[in-house]
Amino acid sequence: MKKNLLKSFVIVTLLMFVSLVYFIGCSDEATPSLYNPPSTTGTPEITSVDPPAVAIGAVTAITITGKNFSSDISKMKVYFGDEAANILSASPTQLTVISPNVSGDMNIRVANQSTVAFSNSYQYTLTPAAEDFYPAAGDSVNRPYSFVFDKSDNIFSYNASLGVYQITPDGVATLYSPKSGEAYWTSMRFGPNGVLYGVRGSAQAIFTIPANAGGTVKNSVWVSLTPATIKIAKIEFDPLGNMWAAGKNTAIYRIKSDKSYVSFPFDYNVTAMRVFVDNGTTYLYVAAQGASSTTIKRLPIDVNGDLGTAEDYFDFSGNYGAESIINDMTFAADGTLYLATDLPSPIVYINTNKSHGLLYQGILLQSPALSITWGNGNYLYYVRTRMNETSGKFKLAQAIVKMNMLKPGAPYYGM
Question: Residue 87 CB: number of other CB atoms within 10 A?
């Protein structure tokens, strides 16, 4: 009897197991397994990129359109060459990224963790956001300070050791005017007929170098303001042909081509100055350093060349600290103001709506900017001060740095 019961139990158990196997085998969906690869919708594919061919490395937001991407950023990787990009947003058909800080011709590839294969390759070019232009790395003798461009895009730079150098767009430098008794020029501008003007910052005189100096003609005094306590640190031309001069004084000075001049009361230390036409009105913008703060002010210039009442334009100290200094300024054609400062990230931009920030933060070296000038194209240049080890030993030469802005600067007047 017991044997028959045991036999029946075994038969029933086997029938139940067979039925269960049959039921599972007939199911429409396979049972998930840890050994199976994750499900995928296919290999990623790049169909277009915007901008389509060229962008500034580590700066421009680049949009990649295609298919078989993922909305989960953690599952996506985008490579420029062998370097991974920073993904800002993702969807199944579009990725927005910031490229790594690299430059040159390379391939873009997309990877989705849900599939093994990379996407197709998309040929792309990244240009550097900033690079040393002059002098060559390691050159501790040539020390540029102030500089200016001529109409042919040549740089004329005051070398604190040697004098004024002319630097071609290809970076070839030749002596233009040998150094005289001054330590350096704090500001330079081209005037009519190719005459180069400069000031020292510690004197009341304005100096000139005639056109085509050829490496032999030294600078000479053009006009000397009185009294002798006047210190001219910055000069600028307006559309009427007037020169404006200012520094640590109680006035701003307008100087005409016949060397006559008048003063307009302004009791600030002017550390930077630039003329810009805003909505049909010509303004003189100045960095006005007071006893405890620095403010960007602007003063309208009327049709007679007279200065109007100063108005506050931007509270620099309120945003970047009272201890920080503005050394120079320039404008883009779109009205964005750029300041060369002694901040660790040295270039501050101020948009027309007064929003502001640090240009190319994390890309520019942490060293103060002495002078800033736009070239004739889409490049903005500034002088980076010499960098030193804590021991005081030479580390990196003072240099002119070239920045790709993908937009032009505002006009300089006087030339």
Answer: 17
CA-CA-CA-CA torsion sign (261, 275, 415, 167): positive
Q: Tokens 């990009």 — which residue?
A: 85
Distances (CA, A) of 197 to 219, 221, 234: 9, 10, 11
Instruction: Determine the length of the chain.
Output: 415
How far, in Å, CA of 262 to CA of 307, rounded?
11
Amino acid at 268: Y
Strands (E), 40-137: 45-50, 54-56, 61-67, 76-80, 83-84, 86-90, 94-98, 104-112, 122-127, 130-134
Cα distance between residue 218 and residue 215, in whole Å = 8
Q: Point out the least confidently predicted range of 62-66, 115-119, 245-249.
A: 115-119
**319 membership: H or E segment, kind and range:** helix 316-320
Q: Phi and psi dihedrals of 193, rounded to 5?
A: 65, 25
| H/E element, 22 | helix 2-25
Average pLDDT over residues 178-206: 93
> How many angstroms separate the CA atoms of 10 and 4, rounded?
10
CA 131/CA 127 separation, integer angstroms:
10
CB 260 within 8 A of CB 223: no
Which amino acid makes up residue 32? P
Output the six-digit token pair for 363: 């890309």
Contact of 66 with 46, CB cutoff 8 Å: yes
User: Which pair of structure tokens corresponds to residue 375?
Assistant: 């070239």
Residue 23 — very low, low, confident or very high, per pLDDT cuts 50/70/90? very low
The answer to whether the beta carbons of residues 63 and 50 sit under 8 Å apart is: yes
CA distances from 304 to 23, 308, 345 (A): 98, 11, 40
Is 136 within 8 Å of 170 (Cβ atoms)?
Answer: no
The Cα angle at residue 44 between residues 38 and 48, in degrees rounded to 5 = 160
CB 242, CB 256: distance < 8 Å: yes
Q: What average pLDDT does the segment 80-97 reach?
A: 97
Burial class (CB in 10 A: 0-12, 13-18, 19+), 330: buried
Give exposure, 206-228, as e/b (b: 16+ Cβ within 10 Å): bbebeeebeeeeebeebbebeee
Distance (Å, whole) CA 296 – CA 284: 10
Q: Are 69 and 47 in contact (CB under 8 A)?
A: no
Q: Can you read off the two tokens belonging to residue 309?
A: 């009442």
